[in-house]
Amino acid sequence: MYGYQAERLSPGVHALNQGAQFHLQPRGNVGVIEQSDGIVLVDSGGSPAGAEQVIAFIRSISDKPVTAIVLTHWHGDHALGVSRLLQEWPRARVISTAPTREMLASPDADRFMPGDNAQANAGFMADIQDGANFLQQAAQDQNLHEADRAGFAQAAREYEQFGREMAVARRVAPTEIFDGSVTLPDRVHPIEVRFFGRANTSGDAIVWLPRQRIVFTGDVVVAPVPYGFNSYPSEWIGVLNQIKALNYAVLAPGHGQTMRDSVYLDHLIAMLSDVRTQVAPLAATDLTAEAASAQVNLDVARDELAGEDRWLRRWFRNYWKDPIVSSALREARGQPIVQGAE
Ligand SMILES: [Zn+2]
């Protein structure tokens, strides 16, 4: 229910995906790239248990060691498999942008994932318990539609598993940062790790295989519903256009299924532009983010992404509309956008 499915993107290049289903507490997709002297990973499996799945998959295709793990961004569902992977391959490089490393090394991340501070970890685990209780209550709430109760029931089961996984998880800061780009050379699978600008977070890394024309985007591209928290709408559009300009054959997103065209990318660009256009006149008012979101109409985009699926329509609003309007409002007002602020 909570695992990865392996997909071969080309000989020696694989994606471990959670698939098309929306998860309230997801695991980030993982890229597996075989070079001549070892395996390079894009993200880490989201927890020690997720990393176990990654390790089992690697063992099934190769006896080479993991030589490098590229973290696309700081979120725990991408970063928290690193500790387990380093037990298996202690010499692996862990590479990210400077902002990603800074966040993972900062106590600011304590609210979102376990680290070295026992007291903060206890608080984090208590928050997970509160979240699980909320989801269980919602699953029983007779005022909710049956489809929503079913969604909350599944989310509660997944969140309880997440809690068990977090009890043994510890974040590890990357060992290596890059500025602009870094190349991991290879005869067959050279890898370019690039920073195209701030997008979903302040430090999104993009992994590009120029020979195979495969791009791993991290959460710069997420389906079926993107995440809009503390992001950078105008720069994000620029990053998406740079990804499109790569003229990729395959796009492996941070969540969701592999893409082989730019239909969804174009949707994202259009949605972000639409949000900025609608938010611009509201920025001059003193509306709160919540009030501004009520003035913004994203019904067409919601229908395209979520269709008639009640559960997805709910999360389109909570994970995308409200947070992206809040981000766009701060951007338009010239206010700082801070990672982990909401
Ligand atoms: Zn993610």
Automatic annotation (TrEMBL):
Gene3D superfamilies: Ribonuclease Z/Hydroxyacylglutathione hydrolase-like (3.60.15.10). It holds the Pfam family Lactamase_B. Residues 27-255 form the Metallo-beta-lactamase domain. InterPro entries: Metallo-B-lactamas, NDM-1-like, RibonucZ/Hydroxyglut_hydro. GO terms for biological process: antibiotic catabolic process. Belongs to the metallo-beta-lactamase superfamily. Class-B beta-lactamase family. PANTHER family: ACYL-COENZYME A THIOESTERASE MBLAC2 (PTHR42951:SF4), METALLO-BETA-LACTAMASE DOMAIN-CONTAINING (PTHR42951). This is Metallo-beta-lactamase domain-containing protein. It comes from Candidatus Viadribacter manganicus. The lineage of its organism: Bacteria, Pseudomonadati, Pseudomonadota, Alphaproteobacteria, Hyphomonadales.
